[in-house]
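dude i think i finally got it to work??
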Amino acid sequence: TVRRFRDTYEFLEHCHVLGAAGIQSAVSNFDSAYLKKVRAQADNYGMWIEVMAGLPRSDNDEQFAKTLAAAKDLGALCVR
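look at this
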């Protein structure tokens, strides 16, 4: 079976154990302290982060903007 991670930090930890160089993930928590924790751990491991986001639409512009801000806080290489 495939394990689906819903938590960005847990996914980062799992991928680190597997020897991955980075992760591509949705942001699971937009709390500033959480984002700092994820970024610090990624930096500690020397891993990169790419953030997954839905395209902006009139009914989710706020969510898109929130995701872009979180990606910046995470030091993401890109948003996909």
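The chain has a mean pLDDT of 94.
im so relieved honestly
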